[in-house]
C-alpha cells in the first residue's frame, strides 16, 4: 500500500480507515459533512489526528509522537480553486515547486515549459493568472501540481468550478496524467469517479459505508449516496424466492438466483419505474424535467415518466401514486 | 457623486481648507530671496543630513523588526495575541514625549537596560543611536499595522498551496507571502519613514539636541524659531515638500 | 461640479469669517465685570509671579490675573499676532527689544530683576564637578543652545573664562537642561540660580565667579492697545516695588 490512513478526529466525529495502492486512483465520495475534507486535511497535514496514524510509502506522516509538516510530505493538493500565485507568471507558477525541490534555475525553467506544453499551455507561459480563463488557470494548476512530483496527489473536486464545455477535455487530460500515479479524488460527479478512479470509497457521517471497484459500487450501490451518484433507486429487504419484502413495507417482484430468506439490496433505474393500479404506494414530492422525461420524486424512490403520462394522471406534489417495476429490471444482490 | 447629498460638500470643503490653508499660509511666509541661503546654512544642512540618515535607518529597523511582528500577529491566533497587538500599537496613541520619557527610563544611564550598558561602556543617551531608537519606537506601529492588515486580507490559502507544493516555510515567506503583500510593505515602510522624519517629542526628551549628532530637522526648526523665524519657516517648507513627496510615493504604490 | 465647488468655497469663506467675528466679540466689550488681567511672563517667573498674582487679586476686588508662562520669544510672537496681553515680562532684553521695535510697548520697559547662571549637578555630584573649568573634563555636560537666552549667557561665561565646552546636548530651554540633570543623564548643566532653587534636593548648585559676566536682566512693560492699561501699570508697579522684589528674591532672583 502507498497511503494508509487509520485515524480519527474526535471533535468532528470522523473515524477513517483508507488505503490507496501504488499507482492507484481512489475516488472519495459522500454527502457534505461526510468527512471527505477531513480525510484530505489529515493527509495533507492541515489537521492532526486525535488518534491513529497516517503513513505514506511506509513513512509515518502523523501519529501520536510524529508530525511531518505539510511541505515535507510529498503530498500535493489540487482543488477547484487553482490558487495560482498572482505575482508569478504561468511559467513562474510551474517553476515554483521545482525550485522548492532545489532544481537549478535553468533546468527548472526547461522542465516547467515541458509540463506546460504537455497541457497545451506553452503559448500562455508568460501570462499572469489574472489573464487566464478558468480552464486555463486550472490546467496551469495541474501542470504545477505535476511539477511538484508528489508521491500522492489529492484532487479536491478539481472540475467543480469549470464550465461544462471545458470539463470533459480537462477530465480526459487529467485521466492521462493520473495513469500510474497514486491519487485521491474527492468528487460529486459520477463521471469524475468513473473516468478517473479505479476504486471508490463512500463516506457517510464520518464512516466508510461502501467501497470497491468504481463500476461495481456504482452498479450495486450499498449506500443512498452511491445510489444517487449512480442515478439508481435503492431499496433493502428480504428475498423470499419471488419477491422482496421491503424494510419499509410493501413487496417488489424480482428475478434472482439468491437463496430465499437472505437480506438483499435491490437497485433499479428510475426509467424502469411505471405507474400502476397496484404497486408500492408513494406520495409525489416533486416533478422536474429530466431530459425529455419528467422525474417524479417520492419519499425514497424516483420515476422517470413521459410528459404525456405525467399530465394525463394530473400528477402534482401530494398526489398518491402506485409504483411498479418489471421483475427483470430489478437487480438484486446480497446486503 | 450623484448618490451623495450636496450638503456634504460644505463640511468636506471646510475640512480640506483646515488642512490646506495653514500649509499655504506657511508657504506664503517663505522669504524666497533668502530661501536657498537659509536651507543651505551649515546647521540646516547638518539637520537635514542627520534627519535623512536617521529616518532611513529607522525605516530599515522598522522593516527588520516590524515584518516578523506583523507576521506573528496576522498568523497566530490566541488569547494573548490581542493583548500583544494592543501593546505594540501603544506608541501610535501615546504622546511622543511620553515615549521619550519611557525610553529614557529604559536606555538612559540610570535606566533599566542603560544601567548595564553604561557598565559595558555603551552610552545611548545623547547619541545618534538614541535618535534612531526614538524614531523606531514611534514609527514601528505604522509598519506593523499596515502590513498586518494586508496579511490578513491576503489570507493563508497561497501559503498552504505553496507548502503543498513542497516549499519550506522560509521559501514560502520570501517567495509567496512577502511578494503578495509587497505594496503594503512598501507603503508601510514609506509611512514609517515619514513618521520617523517628523519625530520630535521623543527625540528631544530622550536624545537631546546637538548639531550633527542628535538635532534633527524638526528640532532645528523648533530651535530656529527662537532666533531666526525665517530659517524656521524655510526649513518647515522643505519638510513639507518631503512629506508631500512621501505621501505621493506611498499613494502611488498603493494604487499600483 | 464647478458651480458646486464654487458654492462650497463661498460657504467655507462665510463660515470662517463668522468664526473670526465670534472670537473677536468678547474682547470688544471690556466693561463687562469681572475684569481679567492678562500677564504674559517668561517661564522662569512662574512661581514668584503666581504668588504676586494672588496678592494682586486680593488687593483688587473683582480682578482676576491670568498668566501665560512660556519662552520669551514665543510670547513676543503671540503678542505680535494679536494675543490679548496687558503686561509682558521678558527673561531678556533681546525679546523685549523685539516688542519695542514693533511699537507694542505702552510704556518704557523697566528692568525689574536679574538672574545669573549656576552649575547644576545631580545630587551627590557623581562626576565631582568643582568649578567652571572642571566642566571641560570627560563628563556629560548639557547646556542651552546658543539660540536661546540661557545659551547666549553660557557662551558669554565660556568666553570670559577662556574655556571651550564640549556639551553632549544643547537644549531648547533651561528646563530641558535641568531635566537632564535631575534624571541623572547629564553629569552637569548650566542653568539659572532660580532653577537650582526650584529643583530642590534633586540637584546641587555650584556657583562660579564668571557668572557675573553674564547677568541676565528681566524687563517688564505694559502692552500697547491693552484692555486694562491702568490695572496693567499697577501690576508692573507691584513687581518693581518693594513687595515684588522681596518675593522675587525669595526664589533666587537678583536685584535689578
Automatic annotation (TrEMBL), chain A:
Keywords for the protein's UniProt record, in alphabetical order: ATP-binding, Nucleotide-binding, Transport
A Pfam entry, by short name: ABC_tran
Organism listed in the record: Brachybacterium paraconglomeratum
GO molecular function: ATP binding; ATP hydrolysis activity
Domain of life: Bacteria
Domain ABC transporter per the UniProt entry, residue ranges: 5-230
Family matches, as InterPro entries: AAA+_ATPase (IPR003593), ABC_SmlMolc_Importer (IPR050093), ABC_transporter-like_ATP-bd (IPR003439), ABC_transporter-like_CS (IPR017871), Mo/tungstate-bd_C_term_dom (IPR008995), P-loop_NTPase (IPR027417)
Protein name: Molybdenum ABC transporter ATP-binding protein
Transmembrane regions listed in the UniProt entry: none
UniProt signal peptide: none
Automatic annotation (TrEMBL), chain B:
SUPFAM superfamilies: MetI-like
One Pfam family here: BPD_transp_1
Domain of life: Bacteria
Gene Ontology molecular functions: ABC-type sulfate transporter activity; molybdate ion transmembrane transporter activity
Statement: the UniProt record of this protein carries the keyword Transmembrane helix: yes
InterPro entries xrefs: MetI-like (IPR000515), MetI-like_sf (IPR035906), ModB_ABC (IPR011867), NifC_ABC_porter (IPR006469), Sulph_transpt2 (IPR005667)
Membrane-crossing segments per the record: 51-74, 86-108, 120-151, 172-194, 231-250
Swiss-Prot/TrEMBL keywords: Cell membrane, Membrane, Molybdenum, Sulfate transport, Transmembrane, Transmembrane helix, Transport
GO cellular component: plasma membrane
Localization in the cell: Cell membrane; Membrane
Keyword Kinase listed: no
Membership in a protein family: Belongs to the binding-protein-dependent transport system permease family. CysTW subfamily.
Subunit structure: The complex is composed of two ATP-binding proteins (CysA), two transmembrane proteins (CysT and CysW) and a solute-binding protein (CysP).
Free-text function comment from the UniProt entry: Part of the binding-protein-dependent transport system for molybdenum; probably responsible for the translocation of the substrate across the membrane. Part of the ABC transporter complex CysAWTP (TC 3.A.1.6.1) involved in sulfate/thiosulfate import. Probably responsible for the translocation of the substrate across the membrane.
Name listed for the protein in its UniProt record: Molybdenum transport system permease
Gene name as annotated: modB
From TrEMBL, chain C:
InterPro entries: ModA (IPR005950), ModA/WtpA (IPR050682)
Keyword Nucleotidyltransferase assigned: no
Membrane topology of the entry: Lipid-anchor
Compartments where located: Cell membrane
GO MF terms, alphabetically ordered: metal ion binding; molybdate ion binding
Signal peptide (residue range): 1-20
Keyword Ion transport: no
GO cellular component terms, A-Z: plasma membrane
Ranges that cross the membrane: none
Quaternary data: The complex is composed of two ATP-binding proteins (ModC), two transmembrane proteins (ModB) and a solute-binding protein (ModA).
Family statement drawn from the similarity comment of this UniProt entry: Belongs to the bacterial solute-binding protein ModA family.
Cited function: Involved in the transport of molybdenum into the cell. Part of the binding-protein-dependent transport system ModABCD.
Name of the protein: Molybdate-binding protein ModA
Organism: Brachybacterium paraconglomeratum
Amino acid at each position: 500500500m502507498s497511503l494508509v490512513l487509520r485515524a480519527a478526529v474526535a471533535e468532528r466525529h470522523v473515524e477513517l480507515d483508507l488505503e490507496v495502492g501504488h499507482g492507484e486512483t481512489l475516488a472519495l465520495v459522500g454527502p457534505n459533512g461526510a468527512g471527505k475534507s477531513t480525510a484530505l486535511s489529515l493527509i495533507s497535514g492541515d489537521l492532526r489526528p486525535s488518534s491513529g496514524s497516517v503513513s505514506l510509502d511506509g513513512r509515518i506522516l502523523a501519529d501520536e509522537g510524529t508530525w511531518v509538516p505539510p511541505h515535507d510530505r510529498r503530498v500535493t493538493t489540487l482543488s477547484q480553486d487553482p490558487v495560482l500565485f498572482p505575482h508569478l507568471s504561468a511559467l513562474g507558477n510551474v517553476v515554483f515547486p521545482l525550485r522548492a525541490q532545489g532544481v537549478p534555475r535553468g533546468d527548472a525553467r526547461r522542465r516547467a515549459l515541458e509540463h506546460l506544453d504537455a497541457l497545451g499551455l506553452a503559448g500562455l507561459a508568460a501570462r499572469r493568472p489574472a489573464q487566464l480563463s478558468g480552464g486555463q488557470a486550472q490546467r496551469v494548476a495541474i501542470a504545477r501540481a505535476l511539477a511538484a512530483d508528489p508521491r500522492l496527489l489529492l484532487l479536491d473536486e478539481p472540475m467543480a468550478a469549470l464550465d461544462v464545455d471545458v470539463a470533459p477535455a480537462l477530465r480526459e487530460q487529467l485521466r492521462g496524467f493520473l495513469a500510474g500515479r497514486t491519487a485521491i479524488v474527492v468528487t460529486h460527479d459520477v463521471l469524475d469517479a468513473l473516468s478517473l478512479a479505479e476504486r471508490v470509497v463512500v463516506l457517510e457521517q464520518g464512516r466508510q459505508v461502501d467501497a470497491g471497484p468504481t463500476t461495481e459500487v456504482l452498479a450495486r450501490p450499498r449506500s443512498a449516496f452511491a445510489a444517487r451518484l449512480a442515478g439508481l433507486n435503492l431499496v433493502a429487504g428480504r428475498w423470499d424466492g419471488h419477491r422482496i419484502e421491503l424494510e419499509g413495507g410493501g413487496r417488489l417482484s424480482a428475478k434472482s438466483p439468491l437463496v430465499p430468506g437472505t437480506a438483499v439490496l435491490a437497485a433499479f433505474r428510475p426509467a424502469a419505474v411505471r405507474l400502476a393500479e397496484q404497486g408500492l404506494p408513494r406520495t409525489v414530492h416533486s416533478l422536474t424535467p429530466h431530459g425529455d422525461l419528467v422525474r417524479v420524486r417520492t419519499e425514497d424512490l424516483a420515476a422517470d415518466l413521459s410528459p404525456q403520462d405525467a399530465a394525463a394522471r394530473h400528477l402534482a406534489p401530494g398526489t398518491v401514486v402506485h409504483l411498479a417495476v418489471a421483475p427483470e429490471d430489478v437487480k438484486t444482490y446480497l446486503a | 457623486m450623484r448618490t451623495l447629498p450636496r450638503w456634504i460638500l460644505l463640511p468636506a470643503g471646510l475640512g480640506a481648507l483646515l488642512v490646506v490653508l495653514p500649509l499655504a499660509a506657511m508657504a506664503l511666509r517663505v522669504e524666497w530671496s533668502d530661501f536657498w541661503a537659509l536651507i543651505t546654512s551649515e546647521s540646516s544642512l547638518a539637520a537635514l543630513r542627520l534627519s535623512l540618515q536617521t529616518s532611513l535607518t529607522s525605516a530599515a529597523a522598522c522593516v527588520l523588526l516590524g515584518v516578523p511582528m506583523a507576521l506573528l500577529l496576522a498568523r497566530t491566533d490566541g488569547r494573548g495575541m490581542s493583548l500583544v497587538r494592543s501593546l505594540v500599537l501603544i506608541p501610535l496613541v501615546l504622546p511622543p514625549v511620553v515615549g521619550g520619557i519611557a525610553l529614557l527610563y529604559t536606555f538612559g544611564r540610570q535606566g533599566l537596560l542603560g544601567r548595564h550598558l553604561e557598565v559595558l561602556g555603551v552610552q545611548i543617551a545623547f547619541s545618534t543611536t538614541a535618535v534612531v531608537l526614538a524614531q523606531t519606537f514611534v514609527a514601528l506601529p505604522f509598519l506593523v499595522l499596515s502590513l498586518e492588515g494586508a496579511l490578513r486580507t491576503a489570507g493563508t490559502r497561497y501559503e498552504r498551496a505553496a507548502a503543498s507544493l513542497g516549499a519550506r516555510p522560509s521559501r514560502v515567506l520570501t517567495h509567496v507571502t512577502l511578494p503578495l503583500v509587497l505594496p503594503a510593505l512598501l507603503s508601510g515602510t514609506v509611512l514609517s519613514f515619514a513618521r520617523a522624519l517628523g519625530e520630535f517629542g521623543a527625540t528631544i526628551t530622550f536624545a537631546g539636541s546637538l548639531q550633527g549628532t542628535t538635532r534633527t530637522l524638526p528640532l532645528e526648526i523648533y530651535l530656529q524659531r527662537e532666533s531666526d523665524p525665517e530659517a524656521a519657516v524655510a526649513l518647515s517648507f522643505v519638510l513639507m515638500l518631503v512629506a508631500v513627496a512621501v505621501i505621493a510615493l506611498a499613494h502611488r504604490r498603493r494604487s499600483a | 461640479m464647478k458651480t458646486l465647488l464654487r458654492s462650497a468655497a463661498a460657504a467655507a469663506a462665510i463660515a470662517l469669517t463668522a468664526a473670526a467675528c465670534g472670537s473677536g466679540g468678547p474682547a470688544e466689550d471690556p466693561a463687562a465685570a469681572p475684569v481679567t488681567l492678562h500677564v504674559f511672563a517668561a517661564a522662569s517667573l512662574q512661581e514668584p509671579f503666581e504668588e504676586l498674582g494672588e496678592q494682586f487679586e486680593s488687593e483688587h476686588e473683582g480682578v482676576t490675573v491670568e498668566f501665560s508662562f512660556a519662552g520669551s520669544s514665543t510670547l513676543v510672537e503671540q503678542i505680535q499676532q494679536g494675543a490679548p496681553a496687558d503686561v509682558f515680562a521678558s527673561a531678556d532684553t533681546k525679546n523685549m527689544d523685539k516688542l519695542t521695535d514693533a511699537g507694542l510697548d505702552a510704556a518704557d520697559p523697566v528692568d525689574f530683576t536679574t538672574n545669573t547662571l549656576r552649575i547644576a549637578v545631580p545630587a551627590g555630584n557623581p562626576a565631582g564637578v568643582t568649578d567652571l573649568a572642571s566642566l571641560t573634563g570627560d563628563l556629560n555636560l548639557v547646556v542651552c543652545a546658543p539660540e536661546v537666552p540661557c545659551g547666549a549667557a553660557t557662551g558669554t561665561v565660556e568666553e570670559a573664562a577662556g574655556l571651550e565646552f564640549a556639551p553632549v546636548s544643547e537644549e531648547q530651554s533651561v528646563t530641558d537642561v535641568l531635566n537632564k540633570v535631575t534624571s541623572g543623564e547629564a553629569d552637569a548643566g548650566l542653568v539659572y540660580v532660580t532653577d537650582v532653587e526650584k529643583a530642590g534636593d534633586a540637584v546641587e548648585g555650584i556657583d562660579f565667579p564668571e557668572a557675573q559676566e553674564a547677568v541676565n536682566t528681566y524687563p517688564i512693560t505694559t502692552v500697547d492697545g491693552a484692555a486694562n492699561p491702568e490695572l496693567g501699570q499697577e501690576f508692573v508697579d507691584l513687581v518693581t516695588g518693594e513687595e515684588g522684589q522681596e518675593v522675587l528674591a525669595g526664589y533666587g532672583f537678583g536685584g535689578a
